What we know:
A: alpha/beta, Rossmann fold, 2 domains, seven-stranded mixed sheet, 13 helices, about 20% strand
Amino acid sequence: MSAKMLMKGNEAIAESAIRAGCQAYFGYPITPQTEVLEYMSRRMPQLGRVFLQAESELAAVNMLYGAACAGVRAMTSTSSPGFSLMQEGISYIACSMVPAVVVNVMRGGPGLGNIQPAQADYSQMTKGGGHGDYKVLTLAPSTIQELVDHVGLAFDLADKYRQIVFVIADGMLGQMMEPVELPEMRELRSPPAWALTGAKGRPKNIITSLYLNAPELEKINQQLQAVFRRIEADEVRYETYLLDDADIAIVAYGTAARIARTAIRRAREAGIRVGLFRPITVYPFPYEALGEVAGRVQEMLVVEMSAGQMLEDVRIATCCQVPIRFFGKMGGIVPLPEDILAEIEAITQGKPALVAREGA
Amino acid sequence: MGKNPCYIFTGRFGSGKTEVAINFALKLCREPAGEDSGCPVLVDLDVVTPYFRSREMADKMRERGVEVVTPAAVSRYLDTPGLTPEIMGVLQDSRRAVVLDVGGDVQGARVLAQYREVLRERGYIMYVVVNPYRPFTQDDVGIASAVRDMELTTRLMAGGLVGNPHMLASTTPEQFLEGWRVLVRASKRLGIPLAMVAVEQSLLPAVAEHLPADTPLLPLERFFFPPWEEERPAGG
């Protein structure tokens, strides 16, 4: 068969992790990401690697912590309520400075919510969802191919910064299918020098997140902050679409960005100059690039499947340079291109300058 | 075999069971087979897939004459097993043909086991839907394992493969034909007929001349679209 395969987002997450050299996967089933476990439970034993269904997300994240300390590439995945349960462990992993990958396939909340797609864990994922001063590099794919690419990239970035890395997805991305091209199977990387591999014949390594001595913990915090400043300087990623001549910029990520594209194409057909700014990393957020866009458009429209969480970052980035309109759907409702088109049209109401003249 | 058999669509996750079952039901409506009396009842037995299920198309189906029986009403938003007694009633009533859209994989097929006796009594044809572009069913070994898993789980005999080779809207005629050849080969090696080959209507003109004249084709109209895709006008 050809190299291309038709994959569900959740399967793509799993296969991409396997090909990136993930040696240990721990998870607990929760819709809409359970297919990651199902796929891993089938493939990991075939390859002689570890698949372990934990008794809860709390257990899964601590197993992830353990595997990461042992120096193997390891991952867990979950959906919103499960992600909340993992926050303690994530904070421990961040403080311990070990690489690990967590994928959150978001669903409607708060609370148990429902199993439909949502983007309402943005703040939790990008601002440090657990206790203490830490942030997590977070990649925001909007296609299944990008999901494949980002899971592989997440492992590399986790290694590069010795930090935990998130992939922020939603139920739509997890459940839908698209043709993907998979990367080659990579060789397993050997445990780094800092890993806990048995100290026989070498000085012992200690990995901990417990520092009772305050000046020592302050030093650890300073080290962490230095890592986050490096991440903020070097890892900002974003994409623009039809933005060069745009009067209106839509800002959206993930599934919402996908739907915004369709609305933008339709608005363009109606002569409205509108484009898309899509953050690919949501932490670090592309503040500078978006601030520059704010200087040359008339208005911005932020679209999210939440009450407006990324909206706060857009406000910081744009420093009140332009009016910002917000359109959000909550509770697992996915916005339709028509909804976004109506918002674009509402912006142009009474502003004929925003609609191109015939032939323009 | 009773005069209105029950057509059962099983297969691996994401093999296209629901699209195939919906289109097969509409086809039976248009061209009643043999003694079959008109439009069938479509039963959505999928208790494992959270999105893109027959029940979401129920209104569209009813407009076109296919009655749709779903798990409990609340399960539109759930993935819990909420089967209603109505389903047993439909299976026992052989005045109308029944099309069963079963959930994916062993987990989805397990639900069928409780209807085994009534199905055997009534008469059934169990199909295993295979898309050779999906993980785990790309070759003979994978396809054989899918058939075996379905038979062992349901304890019913598979009567045929339904080929569904596609890559969604991006499928090229070459990809369709390459996938079809994998299915023909698997069908021969496994000794199980390739009962139908599903092909999206738009691809039909380009591939028809490359297929033997007696290839049992099931032209597909797509029902499920991601929200950002433009829905195409409904075909025949």
